[in-house]
Amino acid sequence: MTSKFLLDKMFLGVSILFLLNTTPLFAHQKCEIEHQKAVHYYQNNEYEQAANQWKICIDKGIVQADLFYNLGNAYFKMNQIGYAILYYSSALRLDPGNEDYSYNLKYAQGFTKDKIDASSEENPILNTIYKIHHFFSLQTGLYAIIGLLWLISFLAVAKLYSKNPTFKNLSIASIFTLSIILAMFLLSVSYKVFVLETEHKGVVLTSSTNVTSTPQVQSQTLYELSEGTTFDIVSFHQGWVQIQLGDKIKGFVKESEIGVIHEF
């Protein structure tokens, strides 16, 4: 029973790893011609044509961090800050630990006009946990969980068949430690999945957009947000989006004037 169980887990783990490894390669092959054209256009400073080619890849259903990052760079070169922030944010959502994505996003955000004060005292311990949590991407977390499960299973079997008391004690201590690490990764991955499913953010794509009190053209304008401003999306209302930005700014904006950061 034990051997069969371990073999089943081994087959499942290898299957998951195989899918994770082949999906990006398959996605690249589906869009290789468009990607090569986009690179050619980009290197020749034809950024609009490059963006159009990369957007064809998105229309084909390809979801890759580098693809969104390239689009962000193309739009930034065209001085379309809203679109640049939209695609940089989408890339970073896929790969939160990537320093290039983070740097370019922050750099682009420096060109936005709206400076929302969201400063507050940070707990250093919580801040450290937050940074560790976002250092690993969702895919890296899944790899870590699979690897830890394999290692814990191996140590458990080795302990079961070992006759060395010292090795058994070391195995128990190692399994305990690894189980704690596994639990941390499980919590981190679970929270990432929860955020991806429940957190929706948008970006102003036009030069400016009005935040109104109700989802109607004739309603009162409460605020004006400039291009590139990022906000939380609360809900959608037939061409309008209910948004929230910090504790002060709440209202509705036209859906046609904003972009939704890609959700996975």
CATH architecture of the largest domain: Alpha Horseshoe
User: What is the oligomeric state here?
Assistant: single chain
CATH level 1 name of the largest domain: Mainly Alpha
The proportion of residues forming helix, as a percent range, comes to 55-70%
> What's the CATH topology label of the largest domain?
Serine Threonine Protein Phosphatase 5, Tetratricopeptide repeat
Strand order of the largest sheet: 6-5-4-1-7
What's the domain count? Answer: 3
SS-derived structural category: alpha+beta
Rg calculated over all Cα atoms? 23 Å
Q: Report how far apart the termini are.
A: 38 Å
User: Based on DSSP secondary structure assignment, what is the total number of beta strands?
Assistant: 7
Corresponding CATH superfamily of the largest domain: Tetratricopeptide repeat domain
Strand content: 5-15%
Poorly predicted regions are 1-27
Mean pLDDT reading:
81
The major pleated sheet works out as: 5 strands, antiparallel
Q: What labels would you give this structure?
A:
SH3 type barrels, alpha+beta, 9 helices, five-stranded antiparallel sheet, Serine Threonine Protein Phosphatase 5, Tetratricopeptide repeat, 61% helix, single chain, 3 domains, two-stranded antiparallel ribbon, 264 residues, disordered N terminus
What topology does this entry show?
Blueprint: H1 2-30, H2 32-43, H3 47-59, H4 65-77, H5 81-94, H6 99-109, H7 124-135, H8 138-161, H9 165-198, E1 201-204, E2 208-212, E3 221-226, E4 230-237, E5 240-245, E6 249-254, E7 258-260
Antiparallel strand pairs: 1-4, 1-7, 2-3, 4-5, 5-6
Helix pairs in contact: 1-8, 2-3, 3-4, 4-5, 5-6, 8-9
